[in-house]
Each structure stands twice: as structure tokens, then as C-alpha cells.
Design a protein that fits this description.
- This protein is 56% helix and 8% strand.
- A hairpin with a 4-residue loop joins β1 and β2.
């Protein structure tokens, strides 16, 4: 059944339109939390958590990119988290911080590009049921497989979860609210 909704290249199904709308909604709230911030404030911790607004946005960008690559190429694109060293984890942790030399504007621009790529996947993937085994990680059940659909839902859920974190951080930073 077609929704009659068209993109530049194809008519998309209701399911795909719903996936795109869900992703767009979660991304909007995450982006909205960093409105009117400079780099210094985007790096500022406001709670006992190490998380910052710039770091969360950077993390969500990397996560979305990694899961989109998983949809296309399977687990070979992901690290084996069961074999990571302390140095590997330290480097991975940098993905949660807006580092010196990185800017909020740069992270937002990268996030826009990653989101555009994911949205193109939603529209053009031949089969949302195509699946891959999950990469090795302590949090992944052994022998589990995720379809492209399940992976896209995970991206949306993770983005929404982090938008909630970002809302708390932003309200603690300067009282601005995103979701009320």
C-alpha cells in the first residue's frame, strides 16, 4: 500500500513515511536542545553525569552513522566491544565529548549529513526485513540478528532517549526547556 507521499526519487510506503517522521521528530528535539549555545556552553557539564550537550550530539551522530553502516554492511563495520582494551574504551569515550578544536556548528553539520544519509536508506532500501547478526558486545545477546527496520527503530529510540538527557542538561544549564 502506498501512502502517496513522494520523495525526489520514489513513492514511499506508509511504513517508511512513519519511520522518517519518527526519526525527524527525535532529531528535532535533540537539535532544539542546543539552540543558541556557543561551544563553551555546549561543553559544559551541568549534572553529576559526564554528559554534555555537544558530547551527546556528537555521540548520537556517531551512533546513527554506525547503525546505518550496519544496515548496509553488517557487523564487520563495528568494533568487537568484547575485545576492546582500556585504550580503546578511552578513545571511544572521546565520542561523548566535544573536544578542543571541535565546534557545535561542525557537529550539527555532520549530524545533518548523517541524518540525510539515513533518510535516504529508509527510502531506498529494497527490503526492510533484510537482517544481519549483531556485532559482538557485552550488551548484545549471542546470535541475535536485527533487520534494517529494527535497526532504524533503534536509531530513533536512542535519539529520543538522548534528546531527553539533553533536555535535562539544557534545563540545568540555563533553565531553557525543550520538551514542555
Amino acid at each position: 500500500m502506498s501512502s502517496g507521499i513522494t520523495s525526489d526519487t520514489a513513492t514511499i510506503t506508509v511504513e517508511r513515511a512513519d519511520l522518517l517522521a519518527t526519526l525527524a521528530h527525535a532529531r528535532h528535539y535533540l537539535r532544539f536542545t542546543v539552540r543558541d549555545l556557543d561551544d563553551e556552553r555546549a561543553r559544559q557539564r551541568t549534572t553529576v553525569s559526564e554528559l554534555t550537550l555537544g558530547g551527546l550530539l556528537k555521540h548520537v551522530t556517531a551512533v546513527e552513522r554506525n547503525w546505518a553502516n550496519f544496515i548496509l554492511h553488517g557487523p564487520s563495520t563495528a568494533p568487537d566491544f568484547t575485545a576492546m582494551t582500556e585504550a580503546d574504551y578511552a578513545q571511544w569515550a572521546e565520542g561523548f565529548r566535544l573536544l578542543p578544536g571541535e565546534t557545535l556548528a561542525g557537529v550539527l553539520a555532520e549530524y545533518t549529513e548523517v541524518a540525510k544519509h539515513t533518510d535516504e536508506l529508509v527510502v531506498t532500501l529494497p527490503d526492510l526485513d533484510a537482517d544481519h547478526p549483531l556485532p559482538p558486545a557485552p550488551w548484545n545477546p549471542p546470535n541475535a540478528r536485527w533487520s534494517a527496520r529494527r535497526t532504524l527503530l533503534h536509531i530513533a529510540a536512542e535519539t529520543a532517549q538522548h534528546a531527553g538527557h539533553a533536555d535535562i542538561i539544557r534545563e540545568s544549564l540555563d533553565g531553557a526547556k525543550s520538551m514542555s
